[in-house]
Specification:
Strand content: 5-15%
Low-confidence stretches: 328-348, 408-413
Number of helices: 16
Helix content: 55-70%
Number of strands: 7
Structural class: alpha/beta
Distance between the termini: 64 Å
């Protein structure tokens, strides 16, 4: 037993040794060469940005991965980490300067592409780059460490570096920032650039850590004051970069928990035999979230509504508002502007109510009452939607009804004529006011609530 333990320790040291096959001089020379951005390297960056922008625009993961494989952005970031590790001030200045140039060229190129592209909708691949979290920090640390370890060996480099380029995903955030500039969306710009900063800072720091661990020879000896100043700057960069990502991660966790609980609540409580729940939406808010749905069929009584509200607490949704739309409604789709879609709703209502209706006459009366309510709104809503659809091509649908806020939730109970407008992109505030005035006049409504939502 006493002989086995030393042998096991030797095996572990040999198995996890980073100095085996280490080629320090060749590694430093190659990283120095990868720092520069000129000629073919700069053209490769521009073309990779175009490919990545197209991939983000059409939501193609394969194209985005291909762009990351040909991108040379890792060079100056690893170069900055190496410079800090060996105290090479000249290399550090070149790396930071070239990284700034590369980032600027990337953002400008992607902004030009997105300003010319006819596809303006933000796809899931773009949206994924706007909310960086602490998990992105962990990816950057692990990926950067793998990259610099691979760079110390000639034999393993070709297998590891492509995976590092994909995992750390340096290019998509810059392309997303270009999209935000082209579409005038500061949230996209700030979120995407923050993700790029996270990746750059922590890839650089992981490179610094590996270089110091391997004990590379120092190019210059820093004065104590200068060394202390660098440590302060590095610590400040870590704190400034990591704190917002922790906050965002916590918000993402809370939003995910709300979404899961809200969906369970809807699946277990908003299923009825004598009415149908359609267009159920879950909206998370830091102070108050909302579950909103439209009920087609027999109105839900106040006692049943109160029971639903009381059940929210058991799902961890105590601060969530439950909003029910409980009247006939006409939904206008963009492909059928001017027509009210009734057949699908009535067929679904008939099937769901079949077991609850005692006779054929009861079924006929229920269906007829739904038809009367729908037809009473068809004329004004059909004309209004046709005209608005011609003026605003971004309009997807209109939903007319009376919104009733369930007693017991935040806010006073009311029953107000409401129009919910669903858009590909919500119009400016001035247009929203004009649309509200137009609908009040067309529907002859003194009091009308107009809500705008985005369909993504």
């Amino acid at each position: 037993m006493t002989r086995t333990l030393p042998r096991l320790g030797v095996w572990f040291r040999n198995a996890f040794s980073l100095r085996e096959a280490l080629d320090e001089a060749a590694m430093i020379e190659e990283i120095n060469a990868g720092v520069e951005f000129r000629g073919t390297t700069l053209w490769a960056l521009v073309l990779a940005i175009v490919v990545a922008s197209v991939g983000l625009n059409v939501n193609s993961t394969a194209v985005i991965i291909g762009a990351m494989l040909i991108s040379p952005l890792m060079g100056p970031i690893i170069g900055a980490g190496l410079a800090l590790g060996i105290n090479d001030t000249g290399l550090l200045r070149r790396a930071v300067r070239n990284l700034a140039i590369a980032a600027a060229v990337s953002v400008v190129t992607s902004a030009i592409y997105f300003s010319l592209s006819p596809l303006a909708d933000a796809q899931s691949e773009l949206l994924a780059r706007t909310r960086p979290t602490i998990y992105d920090v962990l990816i950057a640390l692990a990926g950067g460490s793998a990259g610099v370890i691979a760079a110390t060996r000639r034999s393993d480099r070709g297998n590891v570096l492509p995976g590092v380029a994909i995992a750390t995903a340096l290019m998509p955030p810059l392309c997303t920032a270009g999209y935000g500039i082209a579409n005038g969306d500061p949230a996209f710009v700030l979120g995407a650039l923050y993700l790029f900063v996270i990746n750059s800072v922590f890839i650089c720091l992981s490179t610094l850590g590996v270089i110091r661990l391997l004990g590379f020879q120092q190019r210059e000896q820093l004065e104590p004051d200068e060394a202390r100043r660098r440590r302060v700057i590095i610590t400040a960069a870590i704190v400034i970069t990591i704190v917002p990502s922790i906050y965002v991660a916590w918000q993402v966790v809370r939003e995910t928990r709300f979404d899961g609980a809200a969906r369970r609540f809807a699946a277990e409580n908003l299923v009825f035999t004598d009415r149908s729940a359609v267009q159920t939406a879950f909206r998370y808010g830091r102070d108050s979230s909302t579950i909103e749905t439209t009920l087609i069929g027999q109105p839900l009584g106040a006692e049943a509504e109160g029971a639903l509200v009381r059940r929210l607490e058991s799902y961890g949704l105590g601060r969530t508002r439950l909003v029910l739309h409980q009247s006939g409604s006409g939904t206008i789709q963009p492909e059928q502007l001017g027509q009210v879609v009734r057949a699908g709703i009535l067929e679904d209502l008939y099937k769901r109510n079949e077991s609850a209706l005692a006779s054929r006459d009861d079924r006929i009366r229920v269906l007829e009452s739904e038809i009367v309510r729908l037809r009473s709104q068809e004329g004004p809503m059909s004309d209004a939607t046709s005209e608005l659809g011609a003026l605003y091509p971004e309009l997807r649908s209109l939903l007319l009804g009376r919104v009733r806020t369930v007693p017991g939730t935040a806010g006073a109970a009311d029953s107000t004529l409401t129009v919910v407008a669903t858009w590909r992109r919500v119009p400016p505030q001035a247009d929203q006011q004009r649309i509200g005035a137009f609908l009040r006049q067309r529907l002859h409504a003194d009091s009308l609530r107009l809500r705008h939502v985005t369909d993504r």
